[in-house]
Amino acid sequence: MNTQGLPATDPQALLEAVLASNSKTANSRLKQILDSAIRHLHAFAVEADLTPAELDIGLDFLVAIGKASGPKKHEGILLADILGVATLVQLRNARLALAEGGTEPALVGPFWRAHQPRRADGECIASADTPGPRLTVRGRVTSLDGKPLAGARVETWQASPKGLYENQDEQQPSMNLRGRFETDADGRFSFVSVRPAGYPVPVDGPCGELLAAQGRHILRPAHLHFLVVAEGHRVLATQFFDSEDPHVHDDVVFGAVGSLLKTFESDGQGGFAIDVELRLQRGETKLPKCPLP
Length: 293
Ligand SMILES: [Fe+2]
Known about the structure:
The chain has helices spanning 11-21, 28-47, 52-67, 75-82, 85-93, 95-99, 206-213, and strands at 134-143, 153-158, 178-182, 188-194, 199-200, 219-220, 223-229, 236-242, 261-262, 265-266, 272-280. By secondary structure, it is of the alpha+beta class. The termini are far apart. 29% of the residues are buried. Fe (ii) ion is lined by residues 109, 111, 223, 225. Fe (ii) ion (FE2) binds at residues 109, 111, 223, 225.
């Protein structure tokens, strides 16, 4: 036994002592989360047979994640994304809606901006000099029972055909390929854009080093983001993916799932069109944290 009365070599006694130290945490949900994190962290250290040097490497990695984050980039979001944790949490959080036919969620991601421009129904979100084939998007927002949701706020954002969001690309005007629409009395909205391209996740930080160490590719399949806000309903964040993209079954952030894959149909005039359905579950309307101003 050591001076605290712990058997020095007993991991279970150590775990129980650490859990006991958490027993007075006043916030019950925080206590539950910390208890679980402590149990899994200890089990992880035992299963991986972690050495002190390896623990130091891991802690230095977490420090590097923080240092690489700032107003233009959130390396922590990227870490949760490339480990599949963000997708897991979103799918778990939506499981009740999914059981009743709700639209599958997908990551908000790091590129949503807080003040995307309001646009009229049918408006083009691409500046005149944006290259690439035209894409017409028609959508409908409904409740799980199929009732149309009028006046819903529909935010969309996407990368250009070069695979860059406007805030990553000096060639694009500010707020290009972004918009905020409102559904009509039948829950419908539409806009014109260009067909997006897939893009690499940022790899100039510690997550890039991790992906390289894992021998993984760094690409997301082409997609359009949506965030839908309707009174009395849970906010839906999702993405629709180009089913012809070579990485549509191999998304580096594991966001491309079954029903979100879309065939971009020819519009007969050299462009493409997609129809999207956004089915929202009743509940508290709470906006996710916006990563960019
Ligand atoms: Fe994206």
